[in-house]
Amino acid sequence: MLTVKNLNSGYGKLQVLYDLNIEVPEKGLTVVVGPNGAGKTTLLCSIMNIATVFSGEITFGGEPLTGVVTHKLAQKGISYVPQMGNVFAELTVLDNLHMAGYMLSKAEANDKAAQMTEIFPVLKKFIHRLAGTLSGGERRMLAIAMGLMKNPKLMLLDELSTDLAPIIAERVMVEVARMRDELGITILMVEQMARRALEIGDTAYLLVSGEVRYSGQADSLLHEPELCSMYLGIKQTAGKGGSAKLSVSDEGSENS
Amino acid sequence: MAPWMSSGLIYASGLAMTAGSITLLYIVTRTFNFAVASMATIGFIVVYTGVSLYGGLPYQYYPFVLIIGAITGVICYYGLNRPLLYRKAAETTLMMSTLGYDLILLSLIQMYSDYLTYTFKLFPRRVTMSVFDFELYGESAATFILPITAIACLTILHFFLTKTKFGIAMRATIENPTLAGASGINSDRVYLVSWIISGSMAALGGSFMAMAMTGTPVMGMVTIPLMFAGAILGGLGNIYGGILGGMVIGLTEYAGVYFLAKQFGPWILGYRMGIPLFIMAATLLVFPRGLSGIPLGKIIKNLFGQKRGASA
Fold first, then answer.
1. What is the pLDDT, as a whole number, of residue A253?
2. Single pTM value for the model
3. A91:B172 CB<8 A
4. Which residues of A touch B178 (CB under 8 A)?
5. What is the largest CA-CA distance in chain B?
6. Do residue B175 and residue A90 have CB atoms under 8 angstroms apart?
7. Residue A48 three-state SS
8. What's the pLDDT tens digit per position in B236-254?
9. Three-class secondary structure of residue A175 per DSSP
10. Of the CATH numbers 3.20.20.70, 3.40.50.300, 1.10.10.10, 3.40.309.10, which one belongs to the domain with range A2-224?
11. ipTM score of the complex?
């Protein structure tokens, strides 16, 4: 569905990604993991035409995306949930939902917002409250709901679990998996909480210093002890009977 | 009503509109609009042309002021601001480009003033617009009409920003342009509309100010420090703060001059612009984020809390 070919991009004159190739299959959950500064967010920003694309090709359903202005990408069915600043803090929850569904008619936006409050009941309680007053977890739920308001074909999720308590982060991950399973949405997710993301993902890419170091089945990456330990802070220890057990060696990179 | 109060209210209403115009444009496009000076003068010139050539009251020409102000805003956006914004120009570049536009507008105003003089024997270089006004309850009608118009404009702006889909989209873009773009909001349209509103507000403000001061082709140039003082006093991050800042600057100038001249003599009139600028500096020393940074809610809460505590 989404194809990234030989992408070289960055910010201004600074190059972050080098000859990147990524394939996001339809109705699947593709996970991009890697250490800090690997270029994961830059990948999403390049797709959304927020970062500078120096060369390469990005296509969505066969249609080229390079150079298409950001607000038109939303019209094409691409929904982007940034890591930071993913809600309008000075608007109410309802206004946030309506803004996320900006391209919908008033009636459609109202219906969709009502649907979102059904999916995320926590939002119903705070519908007239300013988004800036919500807790971290509630904000993340609102951000996901905003992403869903547009009836997206493809969702780009940037480190949804960052700064969340582990229990809330787990709830967010469950919602992401539900979006794929129940709504059939294609998802490209960049995540720091690597182990959990790889458990729920279908396809995975490991990004290191702007280059792809691994591509393949998501759960298979968990069985690459060297890569997991070196780049993701996941160590495999031998359990009873010789079976491999996963443990988190570096809390900072897992769910800080 | 004391004469200083009457003129002060008229002048402050105009200054509030121009300060609001500066603030709106700054928070949306990061541009300090120096062209607000000539946009304000255009407001005066349009009304003067109307009443001189076609008669009637100054107020009936305000719709034309709004339209022509909006057109000057649109020209500046497409001609200068938009190409620079898309090239990610620095704030200083954006600001200096508006200064260039202001000088172009100023030249056009001068040429138009000469045209009025040579063709229609009009003299727009020293005009007392208040002579075209009428009396209401023993005062100049502008004393009532202009503050009410300013409040009406503010109310309409508030309604637009809080109740309409596009107005809320404007606020969303102001707060987070990246997320707004990702939500499908066309920031280009938001910038254009902010230039339209800003140009209209500046021109209307200029036409208000000309009812209290001598109208000249350089009146905007003379008063621009006070327009910016109003915007800065308001905190630069809040349109309502900017409007309030302009109001405070305008009123303090007239009140300050009146009371200080009474105390120290008329020589103080030469330093009239210093009074509001001093008040601006003093206010910013106490409240660095300007008037919009004053925690009014907290102050009121504390006051009421204290009262309750005292009565208990």
1. 42
2. 0.83
3. yes
4. 50, 70, 82, 85
5. 76
6. yes
7. coil
8. 878 888 899 999 999 999 8
9. helix
10. 3.40.50.300
11. 0.83
